[in-house]
Amino acid sequence: MRRIITLSLLVASLVPATAIAATSKRELARDRQDVKEDRRDLRQAYRTGDRHDVRNAREEYRDSRREYHEDWRDYRRGHAQIYRRGNWRAPFHYQSFGTGYRLQPGYYGPRYVIANPAFYRLPPAHGSQRWVRHYDDVLLVDIRTGIVRNVIRGFYW
Hints:
By secondary structure, the protein is α+β, with helices and mostly antiparallel strands. The chain has helices at 2-21, 25-48, 51-78; strands at residues 129-134, 137-142, 147-152. It has a 3-stranded antiparallel sheet with strand order 1-2-3, with no helix packed on it. α1 packs across α3. Residues 14-22 have low confidence and may be disordered.
């Protein structure tokens, strides 16, 4: 009897861990596609001008974005070993950067560029933009001008 109770408690404690790890790359891609479709529907609703359609499309877009972000957080929680901070040393001190800030070239040198953003499930960087690691944050930087285009704070922990 003790074995059955112990085994059932063990199984019950493992179920949440497997549920968190269930978020897959395919599910994230599907959610990302839903966000794109809902954004397209919202733009179409703005063009037609019907306020009820706009309200409904805005709610659907908001819901699909929320679902995508929740699934992405679940994926990160289930794959924490990828997002560990590790031994990170930089020749400069931490500074909180925002969108539109112009960086010095030393902050986005080849040493700090994330070579494979898809590995971390980051959106692709197009043209002269690169994802750059700055301590625990990730910055999307235009390497021609040094301007920060996007910031994800606390990406690594």
